[in-house]
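Entry 14: structure prediction run for Glutamine-dependent NAD(+) synthetase. Input pasted below.
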Amino acid sequence: MKQLRIALAQINSTVGDFEGNVRLIIKNIDRARNAGTDVVAFPEMAIPGYPPEDLLLKSSFIDANLRALDEVVAASKGITVVVGFVDKEEELHNSAAIIHDGELVSVYHKIYLPNYGVFDEKRYFHPGDSCPVYEINGVNVGISVCEDIWYDTGPATVQASGGAEVILNISASPYHHGKHHSRERMLGSRATDNVAIVAFCNLVGGQDELVFDGGSVIFDEQGNLISRAKQFEEELLIADLDVEGVFHSRLQDPRWRKEGQKLECDCPTDRITVSASRQDSLRAMLPKQVTPLLESDAEVYKALVLGTRDYILKNGFGGVIIGLSGGVDSSLVATIAVDALGPESVHGLIMPSRFSSPLSAEYANKLATNLGIKAFTVPIEMAYSAYLDSLSEVLCNTKPDVTEENLQARIRGTLLMALSNKFGWMVLNTGNKSEVATGYTTLYGDMAGGYAIIKDVPKTLVNRLCRYRNTQAGFDLIPEAVINRIPSAELRPGQKDTDTLPEYDLLDPILLAYVEEDKGVEQIIAQGYEPSVVKKVVRLVDTSEYKRRQSPPGIKITPKAFGRDRREPITSKFREGG
Ligand SMILES: Nc1ncnc2c1ncn2[C@@H]1O[C@H](COP(=O)(O)OP(=O)(O)OC[C@H]2O[C@@H]([n+]3cccc(C(=O)O)c3)[C@H](O)[C@@H]2O)[C@@H](O)[C@H]1O
Ligand SMILES: Nc1ncnc2c1ncn2[C@@H]1O[C@H](COP(=O)(O)OP(=O)(O)OP(=O)(O)O)[C@@H](O)[C@H]1O
Ligand SMILES: NC(=O)CC[C@H](N)C(=O)O
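Run finished. Output tokens:
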């Protein structure tokens, strides 16, 4: 029986940490070898980390990546390793090294370079021009890198037509809500269309605004899911591939060699021997391991926890501080931070003003107790009065307005930054996507912070995530009264968010249509929304681009986040909202 034991090492590598990444890779090579594995695969760019952005323009970075590759090659005794790195010829290539028994046998260059959304690969890399089939222990394997597999008549089809029985794709495919389902649908159809086993090894971990969700999978040649690794966690997924099954399926399925089929990719298919057939005594097949997918809210929550943990720890911070208002946003941020870092690393600062309801401090303290975090209380009245006194001469004969309101938010930002400087705690910003979209935030005030963990989470989803976490906890970890409160910035007496914004249940779908789906005002109105509300929302979004450019980075969880995904000019006369 022709079989291949494959290991997919979905590791959490760190951009530029060559020493740490090599250590992690070698540890997994050793584990795979001990498990009797024929081939172990690592994610796209596992050696330099992904995406390294303009570090790729530095030759010292490329050279360090090549030295790290040499160390991995030396550690590959008795096993085949497929690992992502940057190859340097005349130009740079996003590449997979195919290594066997201490030797670099071949290098595959990624053919399709994504250059949309958050990707900029054409800025750095040149595309490959060949898609070989590698013989590994007598099995024909087509190897490709991430975007290559997304084309239905791309390298996978070329390699299958050239005899590949297994398609191995190494990826760094970033997360957004629900993406795993579409990714699996695509991989399943790549398997059935080519009557080939498809093994997909994904990166896991947070890198600035991106989270890579892991969830590596293997589909058999009939499109059945035979292995799935955990989402958002490192794992070495080991599976036995029944390659004989591919031969039998192909005999019975005339579709796999479609005569005259027009292919998107016209690269030649060479044959390269990595290791010849091994005459092993027949091994018992490993049991199948299929981790179930997380349900919708759990998936987003886990992405936020992983993104927070990796940003804070990979940037060398031991702790964080959060302004606790007794509202739902800061409560969710504190809860995620505790799940990411542990309660001893999370600190709260309660800063009541003359306009704060006494309930706000009560709820904030209750949350801190439930989470087991330390919370300090520093009222802002003295500072606020001092500011107003200092400005009284300059501001005389003016009416109180947003100026006085924002001073409070700015005092709070200053106090948070003071504790950050003193104790080395990063300030976690608490703005959600609905606020970031509409500019309902104060520059140099509540916009302060090093990382904005819920900046891509709409307010209605903030509420759902709080309920999800309470259900997980089995009690009201986030007090129910906090979730049910009428949202208010408490910057003037009786202020409510709805004084300025539509109700969030109405605002969020309009924002989805405008920001994530790029619909125009007329199209959104045609969906049944009140024209004046649509125009107002669109106007708020368009005129607050300047604020977003000054806002901290945060975790992408939707198909289109603010930042690299949506690059709009600040200065523009194109204003559909008027
Ligand atoms: N194109 C441009 N490029 C660069 N800067 C520009 C600009 N347009 C205005 N500006 C500057 O921006 C300033 C206005 O921005 P800013 O000072 O922030 O003030 P502004 O946006 O007018 O007010 C903040 C709003 O957010 C609300 N808020 C505050 C705090 C917390 C929350 C909450 O829900 O958590 C909500 C608050 O009630 C108020 O409605 C202008 O004075 C001007 O200096
Ligand atoms: N009294 C306060 N004490 C501590 N921090 C505060 C206080 N008021 C506001 N903040 C900080 O400023 C952020 C802006 O919150 P604000 O209360 O103005 O409205 P919000 O966006 O609805 O947030 P939340 O739901 O957390 O209240 C809060 O999330 C919090 O971090
Ligand atoms: N790194 C890549 O090539 C990623 C592109 C791919 N389409 C994805 O998002 O999964």
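Notes: The mean pLDDT is 96. Will compare against the previous run tomorrow.
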